[in-house]
Amino acid sequence: MACVDIHCDSITKRFGVTEVVAPFSVTLAAGQTTALVGPSGCGKSTILRIIAGLDTPDSGTVTLGADPPKTVARRGALAMAFQDPSLLPWRSVRANIALGAELARKPTGDVDALIDLVGLNGFADHRPGELSGGMRQRAAIARSLISAPKVLLLDEPFGAVDAMTRRRLNEDLPPLWRSRGATVVLVTHSVQEAVLLSDRVLVLSPRPARLMADIPIELVGARNNSLVETAEFATLSRTVFAALEEGV
Amino acid sequence: MTTLRRVLWVCAALVVWECVLRMLPDSLLISRPLAIAGYVSNNAALLARATLETSVNAAWGFVWGNLAAVVLGTIMTVFPSSERTLSALSLLVFCVPLIASGPILRVLFGPGVGPQITLAALAVYYTTLLALLVGLRAVSQSWTDLMRIYDRGPVSTLIRVRARASLPYLFVGLQISAPAAFLGAMIGEFTGAERGLGVLTLRAMRGLDSDATWALALLSALIAVTAYGLIDWLGQRMVGYRPVILLSAPAASTRRSTGMRLIEMGCTTALVLLLWQVSMDAFDLNRFFAKRPGDVWAFITDAENRNTLLSALAETLSFAAPGYLAGLALGAGLAALLVLSPALSRATMPVAVALRAVPIITTAPLLVLAFGRGLIGTTVVVAVMIFFPTFVACQQGLRQMPGQIVDLFRSYDAGRWHLLRAAQIPAMLPAFFASARMAVPAALLAVTTVEWLATGKGVGVLMAMTASTSNYNMLWSCVAILAAVAVAVYAAVAALERAVLRVYASEQLS
Predict the structure, then answer these.
(1) Over 90: is that where the pLDDT of B96 sits?
(2) Packing angle of the helix pair B197-206, B210-238 (nearest 10 deg)
(3) Are residues B219 and B345 located together in one domain of the fold?
(4) Hey, how many other C-beta atoms are within 10 angstroms of the C-beta on A99?
């Protein structure tokens, strides 16, 4: 399957009397990584869930390529990593990661390479109950990657991961999903992470979520942690912060 | 509007029931609503007196049983070292089928309400104790750490933290125990009381009076469900939410060697025998009816007695096993199927919870009337007794599945069967096994009660006969062997449960 773009057309969402997403329209280019940033509770995760087809918008439409999310999911081309690792407690780390391929109706592929990538060597046969919060989260990230999805949705996936591993994952994961041509949407609280990992940062307003700023991230050179030290990176981070503060 | 609609549905069901039976005049087993109403109005005074008698006995049993549970729970929390012994003793007493304790209590207490109240208390204390223990432990580590930082001991932690935290759980225990107390009181009446709904039920069944049997079964169910609802309402007013209690994991014994376990088992058995002997001697109970362990041992070592007892036991178990397995399979199977249809599951849950509250054994005479006194009738009673608690526990177990895991499967557009097979059924297993374990004494209670009341087979009838022929050695031997079988099967199911939990919910064993 070729790369797919994500097209949100005037989507809105309300939970009871609370309006969570105001009319929200955006097109995310195929193969790009886009970060959604905004204050807590602004509706970022809801937008991600609507893109995943888990929530239905009250109005408006979401298409992935030319298809609705369900159709893409049925092809096994969509995967999501949640805030909570949501591992099955009775399966080993290896079996939990393989579940991603199983659910996507795809061959399991090289689970061990992914275990290695997320730094869980030696824990493949452990059950989630025997792992730390950060290790569980890394297993969940690996599960989302095993099916080589064309649309990858990451809902604050590095929240529980320790600083050192986070730095390493920030360097190792993007090349992987870029090489596979995945269109990635990343919800994060970290401005630095948003700038480092993505091609574009969308800044959302406090609830109901509206698009406040659309900031392209054009950084020269390989995306690695040393970029954080550059003046260019600092300028982009300041721009995102300024947009966030404007919303508040 | 909803209440009105419910009333209309009930009325419509009654009209259909009446009409169908009028078209089937030969139906002797199922009474018409008007015939049942006629029986109630013709015998209103008698029914009122019997209801009052049974309810008062059940209420006293409820108070004493729950008080015992609170005291035991408190001791186990404050003195954790006492927990293993007290749990084993409580479990043993819980495993003795009430219908077996009944005749013994009758000879110990003589005529009067003593056995009914004691049986009601015995019927409630264990479920409340389990719920309370879950509640007393349901405090976060940070709360207990806070108490330890200020060097507060277990008593202070109990008063300031655990007591309040356990209140919602205590209410769930009390709620489940209200119908159980009613059941205990009625079984006490089956074993030789003079007044009460149990006595009327026995009389109606022996006279093949189906109108009376139906009226009494419905009345008992109504009272039990009302008590259940009242305590639920009270709990909601006082606490505000209902916790789900279903995972009373068996004591984790994975780190103990087999030898250590055998030594513990031997010590517990010795303690039980000692308590039995000492309590009989302390009250100077007449040896003619209050048999000591030595008397029972001498009796069962006689080959003829042993053969009689073992053949009756084999009969009882051959009747209990199919019902036990059928009840578990139907309860879990239906819960799993209903999860495929969430709307139907939501609609059936309150009905199932209400039906769980019905003291099923009081409807045993009806089931025996309908399905006969043989294997099928007994299997149905045992299966029905086990079906509702298993069904409710499995449905609640299925609901424990975190929403995010359901979302994960949905995000891949995985089918409902896939979700059921790969995630929901494995997640339901702990609840299923907890239910299967608690169903062991329930199955033995159901089968022995049916034998006592109707079928004329097995250990139940042996007890009924020996109680009337004053063969107290046989009676005590029946009780001892039933308790031993119940504990052994309970332990076997608990071992299987531990093996399953190790894989599917290892955190419950820590």
Answers:
(1) no
(2) 150
(3) no
(4) 23
Domain extent at residue B64? 45-242
- The confidence score (pLDDT) of residue B247 equals 45
pLDDT computed for residue B141 by the predictor: 65
Helix (H) or strand (E) holding B66: helix B44-78
- A133-169 confidence digits (pLDDT tens): 888 888 999 999 998 899 999 998 887 788 888 888 8
The residue of chain A with its CA nearest to that of B418 is: A103
- Please tell me which of the candidates A76, A82, A102 has its beta carbon nearest to residue B404: A82
Instruction: Output the domain CATH number for residue B79.
Output: 1.10.3720.10
Q: Is pLDDT above 90 for B59?
A: yes
Mean pLDDT, all residues of chain B: 82
Domains recognised in chain A with CATH numbers:
6-77+151-247 (3.40.50.300), 85-148 (no CATH)
Torsion angle, alpha carbons of B176, B182, B185, B191, to 10: -100
- Note the pLDDT tens digit of each residue in B375-428: 888 888 889 888 888 888 888 788 777 788 888 898 888 888 888 888 888 888
The 10s digit of each residue's pLDDT in B273-283 is 898 888 888 88
| CA B386/CA B447 separation, integer angstroms | 11
User: Does the model's pTM come out above 0.80?
Assistant: no
The total of other beta-carbon atoms located within 10 Å of residue B416's CB is 14
Pairing of strands A151-155, A183-187: parallel
Contact B411, A80 (CB under 8 A): yes
Contact at CB, B408 and A73, closer than 8 angstroms: no
Cβ distance B404 to A86 less than 8 Å, yes or no, reads yes
> Which residue shows structure tokens 């260019």?
A232
pLDDT recorded at residue B340: 80
CB B57 within 8 A of CB B63: no
Which of A:164-203 have CB within 8 Å of B?
Answer: none
Nearest chain B CA: its distance from A115 CA (Å): 20
Task: Report the residue of chain B nearest A85, measured CA to CA.
Answer: B404
Q: In the 8-state DSSP scheme, what is residue A6? A: E
Q: What is the pLDDT of residue B332?
A: 92
Residue B25 in domain:
no
Q: How far apart are CA B498 and CA B128, in angstroms?
A: 22
Task: Report the 10 Å Cβ neighbour count for B37.
Answer: 15
Q: How far apart are CA A181 and CA A4, in angstroms?
A: 9
- Find the mean pLDDT for residues A22-44: 91
Q: Would an 8 Å CB–CB cutoff place A127 in contact with chain B?
A: yes
| Residues B329 and B225 occupy one common structural domain | no
**What gap in Å lies between CA A166 and CA A141, rounded to an integer?**
12
Looking at the domain assignment, is residue B90 inside a domain? Answer: yes
- B75, B132 in Cβ contact below 8 A? no
* Residue B426 placed within a domain: yes
| Neighbouring-strand partners of residue A6 | A28, A64
